TrEMBL record, chain A:
Pfam families listed in its UniProt record: Fer2_3, Fer4_8
Cited SUPFAM superfamilies: 2Fe-2S ferredoxin-like, alpha-helical ferredoxin
Gene3D superfamilies cross-referenced by the UniProt entry: 3.10.20.30, Alpha-helical ferredoxin
Identification of the protein by name: Succinate dehydrogenase
Domain (4Fe-4S ferredoxin-type): residue spans on this chain: 150-179
Keyword Iron-sulfur appears in the UniProt entry: yes
UniProt xrefs under InterPro entries: 2Fe-2S_ferredoxin-like_sf, 2Fe-2S_ferredoxin-type, 2Fe2S_fd_BS, 4Fe4S_Fe-S-bd, 4Fe4S_Fe_S_CS, Beta-grasp_dom_sf, Helical_ferredxn, SDH/FRD_Iron-Sulfur
Names of required cofactors: [3Fe-4S] cluster; [2Fe-2S] cluster
Domain of life: Bacteria
PROSITE patterns referenced in this protein's UniProt entry, alphabetically: 2FE2S_FER_1 (PS00197), 2FE2S_FER_2 (PS51085), 4FE4S_FER_1 (PS00198), 4FE4S_FER_2 (PS51379)
UniProt keywords, alphabetically: Iron, Iron-sulfur, Metal-binding
């Protein structure tokens, strides 16, 4: 199939950047979106141009490295799918596809489609950990966890920190990401000692990074490749309220 | 949960969630007022005497413990603080949100949230303008064609007379804006205050919808009753 891509090109953090149109011919419908960009980049290199920079790593939908706005939707049109797992068969021959980086003040563009997601690391550093002695792993059966808690914690823990929630949010908020981390640790017995400080510290790091506030639109959960539920934000809000009141 | 030890001032009270909680609490207070106000309005269907008597009674609430009108002024003060708190938090959050996305997407389909969710901010502005007009119209009587204190029934009837169709139109649009604002706002407030179960979310959304529709119907019944001559 032959397609046209309009890609955001930006040479560096201080460059102004603009959308540039390229033709990509003879793409297999079974190619992934990133493979299509690989083909585009090979053509660009052959013609002496700078290839399009984009983040990627595992290419099997589990690492969270890839991600771009495809026709204005984070990770493209398929639900619960990362960009690397999106295939060209979901597009039509002759389509023009717009590709842009995540847009958020805390995610400055480094080059083309690559953004600096260090703000997520700062939120994690602020409270996304538990205090436990290192060494031999303890006997798992010695700490019982109710099944529903374990399931919900696992659902929250599937967050890969790709940043799609921020990119999709009309407020540029990272609330779903923070909520997932707070829920995932806060549901576990091991996460209890820091439960109250965690939520306050992570929220403070989130606000300091310049993310917006949540208005419960639900855009984040719609594009989340792991389908992190919006209900976790309610859990975050409840945890926050209890922490501030010292309940 | 153990209490968080304060490093500086009480920590976390200026976070975006604290502002949201302020919006949720003030919003719920204002919705409570809207419901009481609506029930009062519906007394117009019992005739001029009942309605005017009810309006006069409002000034005597709390007497003889409080002097005449005092309760009303206390309520007005509380509502004004609630409105100011709600709007201040909204403005701070809206400014943070716009700062969080300095470069817009060149290709952006319509946000998938409901119409109500997408119009919260501008809808809120419309509601504020309406409140100002409404106070000048039916509280102070400044913009009312009858505008005599105590003649509440006559003031309402004169306000929504068929010849003043534009007032009825503005009133209708404003009340519908309130309805949309509450449809997302009520559910959103529940979520902000900690609603977190999928089943509870369905209930919260349904309750928000029902409360919004009842409110819109209740408020609009008055001007339309005047328009069709049921109240004159």
């Amino acid at each position: 199939m032959d397609i046209q891509v309009r890609v955001w090109r930006q040479a560096g953090p201080s460059d102004k950047g603009k959308m540039v149109t390229y033709d990509v011919k003879d793409i297999s419908p079974d190619a992934s979106f990133l493979e299509m960009l690989d083909v585009l980049n090979e053509n660009l290199i052959l013609s002496g141009d700078e290839p399009v920079a984009f983040d990627h790593d595992c290419r099997e939908g589990i690492c969270g490295a890839c991600g771009m706005m495809i026709n204005g939707v984070a990770h493209g049109p398929e639900k619960a799918t990362t960009t690397c797992q999106l295939h060209m068969r979901h597009f039509n021959d002759g389509d023009t596809i717009d590709v842009e980086p995540w847009r958020a003040a805390p995610f400055p563009v480094i080059k083309d489609l690559v953004v600096n997601r260090g703000a997520f690391d700062r939120i994690i550093q602020a409270g996304g950990y538990i205090t436990a002695p290192t060494g031999t792993a303890p006997e798992a059966h010695s700490t019982p966890v109710p099944k529903p808690d374990a399931d919900l914690a696992f659902e929250a823990a599937t967050c890969i920190g790709c940043g799609a929630c921020v990119a999709a949010c009309p407020n540029g908020s990272s609330m779903l990401f923070t909520a997932a981390k707070v829920a995932h640790l806060g549901l576990m017995p091991q996460g209890q000692p820091e439960r109250a400080t965690r939520v306050i510290d992570m929220l403070e790091a989130q606000d300091d990074a310049g993310f917006g506030g949540c208005t419960n639109m639900g855009e984040c959960t719609t594009v989340c490749p792991k389908g992190i539920p919006l209900t976790l934000i309610g859990r975050l809000n409840a945890d926050y309220r209890k922490s501030v009141r010292g309940n | 949960m153990p209490k968080v030890q304060g490093k500086r001032r009480p920590r976390g009270v200026r976070s975006s969630i604290a502002l949201k909680i302020l919006m949720a609490v003030t919003g719920l207070l204002l919705v409570g007022f809207l419901y009481v106000h609506m029930i009062g309005n519906l007394k117009i269907f019992f005739g001029a005497e009942t309605f005017d008597h009810y309006a006069h009674w409002l000034r005597t609430i709390g007497t003889p413990l409080l002097p005449q009108d005092w309760y009303l002024w206390i309520q007005r003060a509380v509502l004004t603080f609630a409105v100011i708190g709600h709007i201040t938090a909204a403005v701070i959050l809206a400014r943070r949100a716009s700062k969080a996305r300095p470069v817009k997407y060149s290709h952006r389909p319509k946000v998938q949230g409901s119409y109500a969710a997408r119009t919260m901010r501008w809808g809120g502005v419309i509601v504020l303008l309406f409140i100002i007009y409404h106070i000048l119209d039916l509280t102070t009587g400044t913009l009312n064609p009858n505008g005599k204190p105590g003649e509440v029934y006559a003031n309402v009837a004169a306000d929504f007379a068929p010849s003043r169709w534009y007032v009825t139109l503005f009133y209708t649009l404003s009340i519908v804006a309130v309805g949309f604002h509450l449809r997302h706002g009520l559910w959103s407030a529940a979520r902000t205050l900690g609603q977190q179960r999928p089943h509870g979310e369905k209930i919260a959304r349904a309750v928000a919808l029902v409360l919004s529709v009842v409110l819109v119907v209740g408020y609009l019944s008055v001007p339309f009753a005047v328009l069709i001559g049921l109240v004159d």
